[in-house]
Amino acid sequence: MSVNSETLIKFLLSRRSVRRFKQESIPIDLVKKILDVARYAPSAWNKQPWIFIVVTDSVVKNKLAKIHKWAYPLEEAPICIVVACNKNESPDSFHIDCANAAMYIILAAHAHGLGTVWIHTLRNVEDIQRILNLPSSYIPIAMIAMGYPAEIPYPRPRKELRDIAYLNSFGNPLP
């Protein structure tokens, strides 16, 4: 596969958080393709401590959508993917490992024309574990609302590079 770097950069910069979805189902084979990509996310010592729970049941999605006020996109999304990590398998890095896998899901979905939004989970770990019957060793790191976009969000403002990038030590600006 030959894709030039400008095409890849445009792809990365075109991703947006989508919170409104068309009521169109996503073929399970497409979801499996997306999750297959997520298996290749980097993890410390290649532990791959993640699991992916695909939630299509509206009752379960609505319970997850009510765990906090910013989880509302799950009500409308055809699919929710919960990324959870086994903290015993990778005790020092499970948060980062699963964040990497979640980002791979988001980018793979974008590549297939789907919209996503990352929904925070870490304040509601026990609620999510209870709803999904997750063992206590599995910590939900992200819930990803996914569907065909019913909106095209505008790019949000970004901090200037000069305000966030330094050379060799904090406060020493990049030339």
From TrEMBL:
Database matches in InterPro entries: Nitroreductase (IPR029479), Nitroreductase-like (IPR000415)
A Pfam family the protein falls into: Nitroreductase
Annotated GO MF terms: oxidoreductase activity
Record domain Nitroreductase: where: 13-68, 72-148
Keywords: Oxidoreductase
Highest taxon of the lineage: Archaea
Alphabetized CDD domains for the sequence: Nitro_FMN_reductase
Protein family (similarity comment): Belongs to the nitroreductase family.
Protein name as catalogued: Nitroreductase family protein
Organism encoding this protein: Ignisphaera cupida
